[in-house]
Design a protein that fits this description.
The chain has 97 residues and is mostly beta strands. The protein has a single domain, classed as GroES chaperonin (10 Kd Chaperonin, Protein Cpn10, Chain O).
């Protein structure tokens, strides 16, 4: 696990693995693979407050699988792997089982 603690309304996620083959069985090289849009929430930021000073609760939790945009957030590389830090508002949805 990354030793990164996001601040504010930011979320640390790890993209799930991209598909390496097409439905027809063709193996895709790394350069042809699209960035995966599903990610696992690794850590939550410190939170935020609204105009009235009321605490804003996170809509996601650690270990949630979320849907994110392909090109949103900031990529972070650590010895543990590649992560992405993005604002909670950039999360498109939570995947349900």
């Amino acid at each position: 696990m990354a030793n990164i603690k996001p601040i504010g309304q930011r979320v640390l996620v790890k993209r799930l693995l991209a598909e390496t083959t097409t439905a027809g069985g063709i193996v895709l090289p790394d350069s042809a693979q699209e960035k995966p849009q599903e990610a696992e929430v690794i850590a939550l930021g410190t939170g935020g407050t609204d105009e009235n000073g009321k605490t804003i609760e996170f809509a996601v939790a650690v270990n949630d699988i979320v849907l994110i945009s392909k090109y949103g957030g900031t990529d972070v590389q650590t010895a543990d792997g590649d992560y992405l830090i993005l604002n909670e508002s950039d999360i498109l949805g939570i995947m349900t089982k």
